[in-house]
Amino acid sequence: MMKLSDAAVLGSCTTEMAGHDWDNCFLGAAANAIGLPRISTTIIDGIHTVDVQARIDAILEYWPWLNEHEGRRLTDITSMYDSGRYTFEEMVEYVRSVEPPCACAVRDCCCDRSAYLFGQFPESDVEQANAMSRR
Ligand SMILES: [Zn+2]
After folding, report:
1. Residue ranges per domain, the chain?
2. How far, in Å, is the centroid of ligand 1 from the Cα of 4?
3. What are phi and psi of 102, to 5 degrees?
């Protein structure tokens, strides 16, 4: 897993970086860095169908915190970038200020806690402690 801010920095060299385009915007760059498929276009009987939603869904699946506040995190980031008023660096700074601190992308996760516990105590003791706390 990679944080959105880190992925965007890494992916910024994979696109020409342009707003209003899910393949090349801020989130698009991040999606490229982690290898999400780009927008697919199918042509059936001369009719072009562009599946942008699949790309957005994949982004939301990887960074579920973008759904916070009824999806406003996602729209905030895209509209800030699309406005052209912020530099890429400012966008990275903004995202770092709102994203979960852990690379697992889950807010209030227990990665640190379990790493600490598993590092300190045998796994069986941790399981026992968890079982006791569930009672
Ligand atoms: Zn975590």
Report:
1. 4-99, 108-135
2. 13
3. -95, 145
What's the rounded Cα separation, in Å, for the pair 135 and 115?
Answer: 23
**113 touches 102 (CB < 8 A):** no
pLDDT in tens, 52-106: 999 999 999 999 999 999 989 999 999 999 999 999 999 999 999 999 988 888 8
How remote is the CA of residue 26 from the centroid of ligand 1, in Å? 23
Token couple for 34: 């982690």
**What are the CA-CA distances from residue 15 to residues 74, 88, 100 (Å)?**
20, 13, 25
116 CA from centroid of ligand 1 (Å):
12
pLDDT value at residue 134:
67
Average pLDDT, the chain: 88
Distance 21 CA to ligand 1 centre (A): 30
CB 1 within 8 A of CB 103: yes
